[in-house]
Here is the input.
Amino acid sequence: MTRAALLLFCAFCLRAQSAPAPELALDVNAETDAVLSNGWPLLIRVLVISADGQPVSVGVKSGAWTQALQLTVTGSDGTARTWPIQLAPEASSSLALSGLDTAEAVWLVAPADSSAFPPGLYNLSVTLDTSTTSASGSWSGAVSAGASVTLQAEPSTLSAEDEASKYLAFAAYSRLKGDTQGTASALDTLIAHQPSILEAYSEKAALLASQGDYADAIALYEQTLSSFLAANPNADEPLILFTRPIDDVAAKIIAQQESATVSSALPGRTEPVIAPDSIVDAYGARLATGTADASGALTASLGGTTVTITDSAGGTSSALLFYVSPGQVNFAAPSALALGPATVTVKSADGTSQTGAVTVADVEPAVFTLNAAGLVAGSILRVTAAGSVNEDLYAVDASNNIVPAPVDVSKDQVYLIFYATGIRRAPQTQVSVSIGGVNIPVAYAGPQGSFTGLDQVNVLLPASLAGRGDVALILTVGSSQSNLARLSFQ
Here is the structure.
């Protein structure tokens, strides 16, 4: 046995016998051996992971766990250097690490400070030492990691790679400093100079999401994923770096929608947009004296409740009613409504009348879902060599809850047929569907044909969605985006 093999064997023995411990990795601007220019921000990051994937807790008796970190900088001659650094963001008091859970801390050096450093090689070392300060039940010991950075004057002309590194560093620095304008400026500059840098688009999408602009964030994530797939049509690697952020933002939109009232046409609500010949939900109080469902043909009076709409041209139309109750009325917006501001009046059987302002637009897409969690209402048509079989897209569990039935797109051709409203007046070329961040060609989009105001969309699901699990479906018509719905893929 060679000495190297013996040492490796002994290290394995020691690890197998010791308690779980953390392990460190150190980099500067995402590189272990970085070559950067004076005047660029420096982001010195330490990544903390579990050495063997087993759960391990890191904590100190008081304060943040980062108090146990010691960062040293030396020049090429071994002389210690003192750099003006700032730790960001603030750390939690303790860490719970495992094979999936990691943590990091980042020290920032401002561009103005790095410009004053003499050019040359600098060696960095970080140590996590809790041997005397560990909290009860936490790991006690010391581990270290190192990295280096070479600073030089910025060349008069940067290579494409160096330019990308520069602006991504400025964007990350501004983000960690809480400077959203600086972050956006750096990313926009990089995108303008190098439109093919997908990381810039992903970072900008993350910035939009952090500001609560979820719709634009999703759209930008989808654009990034589409660009990647176009450049790498036969990519074998998992697309989780693209799809996970899309799913995370989609979940936030769904949560936002679950806590908000949508399509209200009554006082005290945000003014909604409705489309002619679409199905509209109105919410409020004392809208009806009881509950009634339409049976057979729709009528303009249901349970004594009526709905009239006065449009921008001064015309007044009666709406056909699907359902009425004291708190909710569902009606079909008349097809002849003029576009622009309008007023909806709901009058109940006892004479109580309530009005609300709406805007009438050609299209206002909305996807029908089966529950508050956004499970899409529709069906699948599975095409096999033996023929076509219609199957429900949902199932009922042991507790009688509606749950997604996983769709397997890895074997047969599978068409998704789902239902919407407010899209029929747009040409099909303006209708797009995104599922899990993947843009899906639309085979049909238009009236369902049997029910007033109901529209239908048919799409062929690509095999690339196999194994994605629970993902979001977004319907976009022109510049208008629908609510989110969900699908599950096995």
Remarks:
- The helical segments are 3-17, 111-114, 160-176, 180-193, 198-210, 214-231, 240-258.
- The longest strand covers residues 142-152.
- The chain has four domains: 20-152, 162-258, 273-360, 366-489.
